[in-house]
Amino acid sequence: GPPGTGKTHTLARFVLTLALRGERVLVAAPSNVALDQIALRILEIGRRDPRIQRLLQERQILRFGYPKLAAVAAAEVLYPDLQEVRAVNFEIARLQGQLDALETQAAGDDQPAEVHERLAVAARQMRELVRHRKDLLDQHVNAARVTLATTTMCGVDDTLHVSTPFETVVFDEA
Q1: Predicted confidence band at 82 (pLDDT cuts at 50, 70, 90)?
Q2: Torsion sign across C-alpha atoms 80, 82, 86, 88
Q3: pTM (predicted TM-score)
């Protein structure tokens, strides 16, 4: 339909109705901006509806991925354990820098075994951190009643291929 006719609001209401019935819903859209528009409508409805506010406060609505709109990025109710996930991501980035430096060092033929050992330790730490981040995300996706993710994330991120299946999948063609 034409712009301004309430498509996004209707979609948000539909998804929330299913969530209030206890269904797990995956909302997919081709772009982060389209998902953010749906998330904004959900937040707006939540300000007026105590049942939706409760879902938000209980972290039952998850914006998975990379929001583009500042208002959605700032809405911590859409991101369970945001501080812990950010801390793990920061540590992964720091460790990646360390790994890159060690790999450069290890590239020389005459490098001591200590460099190769440090590289092995850092690689093991990286695997553990990545596994920890995946466990965190799996836990949040499995606990959420509504998960919003781009169609790309739905296809490439195995976190969305959860052990607790979604009863309903909604695609917003934006």
Answers
A1: low
A2: negative
A3: 0.80
